TrEMBL record:
<dbReference type="InterPro" id="IPR012336">
    <property type="entry name" value="Thioredoxin-like_fold"/>
</dbReference>
<protein>
    <submittedName>
        <fullName>DsbA family protein</fullName>
    </submittedName>
</protein>
<dbReference type="Pfam" id="PF13462">
    <property type="entry name" value="Thioredoxin_4"/>
</dbReference>
<feature type="signal peptide">
    <location>
        <begin position="1"/>
        <end position="21"/>
    </location>
</feature>
<keyword id="KW-0732">Signal</keyword>
<dbReference type="InterPro" id="IPR036249">
    <property type="entry name" value="Thioredoxin-like_sf"/>
</dbReference>
<feature type="domain" description="Thioredoxin-like fold">
    <location>
        <begin position="31"/>
        <end position="219"/>
    </location>
</feature>
């Protein structure tokens, strides 16, 4: 037996290590209308419409994360695209902050803002007349910075590793603010989104689905249809 033949036999006898599974939660891209995580070719394509001042959106994010992100997305069954629905100036300030920096940071920023919603919404309910006046006057950047400062959203982002100057620059980005608002209006027009959270699955708006359990049922049914 030649040396090369012996080496080939040894190679055949030693089992190959299994390939490392793809972690689709690490695949984050900015789309034309939002941010997507997951396999762009996944059989289940979900669009999630959210407002950061919507308590039901925070509840959805909390209840859905374990199964949606760490089963459906992680395993390549689904991709999730988050799109902003801007209902008020606070939504806009929060959206600017979630989009601050590299697109790969979006979903962690998104989660952080929703996870702390109870705290900063409680602060918003106690606004003084002077604070409300600051929110409604001056340039877009001035208003966005006032909102972020009064609600502690700037501190939240600095706690996530952003510098004060980075946070300020994102809040001052008037062209980005206008773009976010225009995209929100376009989404309403395209899908006739009735409220938040709402979901589009494979191009179709899921009527009456505004929480995790109804969405989960729709995903289970869609997977069965695809098998």
């Amino acid at each position: 037996m030649t040396r090369w033949a012996a080496a080939a036999l040894v190679a055949m006898a030693v089992p190959m290590a299994p390939a490392t599974a793809q972690n689709w939660n690490a695949e984050v891209v900015e789309t034309e209308q939002g941010y997507r995580v997951g396999d762009p070719e996944a059989p289940l394509q979900i669009i999630e419409f959210i407002s950061y001042t919507c308590p039901h959106c925070a509840t959805f994010d909390r209840e859905a994360e374990a199964e949606l992100r760490y089963h459906y997305v992680h395993e390549g069954y689904a991709a999730v695209e988050v799109r902003h629905m801007i209902r008020n100036p606070v939504d806009l300030a929060a959206a600017l902050l979630t989009e601050c920096g590299n697109p790969s940071r979006f979903f962690d920023n998104h989660k952080a803002v929703l996870a702390t919603q109870d705290d900063w919404l409680a602060t918003a309910r106690g606004l003084t007349q002077a604070q409300m006046a600051r929110w409604a006057s001056g340039s877009v950047g001035n208003r966005m910075r006032a909102i972020a400062s009064d609600l502690g959203l700037d501190d939240l982002m600095e706690g996530r590793g952003y510098s004060a100057s980075e946070v300020s620059a994102c809040l001052n980005d008037e062209s980005r603010a206008l773009e976010i608002a225009e995209k929100s209006e376009a989404n309403v027009a395209e899908y006739a989104v009735p409220g938040t959270p709402s979901f589009v699955l494979n191009g179709t708006l899921l009527e009456g689905v505004h929480a995790w359990q109804p969405l989960r049922q729709a995903l289970v049914a869609a997977r069965q249809d695809n098998e």
